[in-house]
Amino acid sequence: xxxxxxxxxxxxxxxxxxxxxxxxxxxxxxxxxxxxxxxxxxxxxxxxxxxxxxxxxxxxxxxxxxxxxxxxxxxxxxxxxxxxxxxxxxxxxxxxxxxxxxxxxxxxxxxxxxxxxxxxxxxxxxxxxxxxxxxxxxxxxxxxxxxxxxxxxxxxxxxxxxxxxxxxxxxxxxxxxxxxxxxxxxxxxxxxxxxxxxxxxxxxxxxxxxxxxxxxxxxxxxxxxxxxxxxxxxxxxxxxxxxxxxxxxxxxxxxxxxxxxxxxxxxxxxxxxxxxxxxxxxxxxxxxxxxxxxxxxxxxxxxxxxxxxxxxxxxxxxxxxxxxxxxxxxxxxxxxxxxxxxxxxxxxxxxxxxxxxxxxxxxxxxxxxxxxxxxxxxxxxxxxxxxxxxxxxxxxxxxxxxxxxxxxxxx
Length: 411
What we know:
CATH topology of the largest domain: FAD/NAD(P)-binding domain
Structural class: alpha+beta
């Protein structure tokens, strides 16, 4: 029996996992990666620490995958979060579980995840070629090879794991969508997910790039009776266009059918204090500094770069003496500190997103194998598929699971 020749297009999380599993099955595997290093996108995930999965059960992953989560059922049964953890630890990479069941390498270095994947792939017998695939070769509804800039190479199987359109500097330039479309597949329109947000309210120039730590945010759908759709705690960054930071990117994945004004974000600048306790603190501040101005008092409550924005919000004269601030004005200050409000205008461009929503329609992919229902021998894995999860390691788990299943080719 002849050895199956398999091409994996894309050396990211899904592609490298697919390559390992195909090699372990006895196939002759070649990974085509256009960058000079594999896994470039992995280097920037989790702020360079790489949140590679979530230590949870399969149903929790599906629940945290709002776009086509059920499609992942077979892939997750084949390669669950527990399997991901076991895979990396068996290759010598110690892992740890943090808040929200997020799993990271003990070293806090995404590079160690990349190195582990590369070492495992090479140990399994994979060949890595740093070349760009230009076209697929399809004959009579069957994959027969790929075309690079230099040659046409025969293959029995091709696994497309090229990623989406997010962070194009890492090589995610939408090649997989082009290959799939030319093969007859439907491409669900791509939009950003886990992305910064533009706000209607202007951000002061001096506050641009200001990072606010230890704040709480609540997201409301103004078109659905102001229903709270998401809450988080962590870092938010003010930008000249609006908002960024970990809590904002996470919040963006909960926003669907974006329209200007549809969503409102309220940031709690003092989450450790109730409104009552914050009010008591202000009363003490005003009493102890009864000759200081309102602007001076604000310096003890927030970064100086934010004071101009907050002064306009509270509509209290900056030079008003604290002893003259009324009870109603003090209550307004308390409310604004606990409910700093931003009206969302739009997502930032897709090339600023961590992941993309949209891609190859799951209706045209066999969920038990990841093989195309249209072209025999053509498989898909990772972000190129129309599957979109929340933050917390769920997107990488989906990439590893679909990659492992595509590589194995198992029913």
